[in-house]
Amino acid sequence: MPGDIDHAKRALRADLRERRNLLSDQQRAAAETALTARLDQLIAATGARSISCFLSTTTEPGTRAFIRAALTRGIRVLLPITREDGLLDWAVAGSDEEITMGLHGLPEPTGEILNPMALDEVDLLLIPAAAVDRTGMRMGWGRGYFDRTLGSMQKCPPVYAVVFDSEILDDVPHDVHDQPVTGAVTPLRTVVFPLT
Question: Domain range spanning residue 104?
């Protein structure tokens, strides 16, 4: 039942948010360093030259060092910009990126805005998540931006959720609109989920 699923998601999100808040600055820094290496390996393995990523908040697995390194190697990185209508616009990351707080208080790039179709040109999607399960079902934070984005793409490249190691769970509550991912990248491992 939808009400039960929503309640289960809210409870799990609250637990995951609390766990993230308990991480020390040293744990976060070590996780970002390890995650950067994992993401670099994924880029090398896939041969991706154009990717999407996201500007991590202070409690998310850190992506900013990875983005800087990717730009240095000539990788084109698109970053999401939230819209009032529930869709995502995109901006090309720059090395001297200015950051503003977008809708919902999330960090977003400034600069030229590209429409949602810009995502059709990327080779790999790296997206945030609260958790993923062992089948590849992703649970986000409840706003639906990435579920709508993935659900609307006609030709979707590989999609990897970026999470902490403890956020790959046996299963997550999900509804019909929730979208699965190809894999997950954590500070300690990269997981590819079986096709269902």
Answer: 2-192
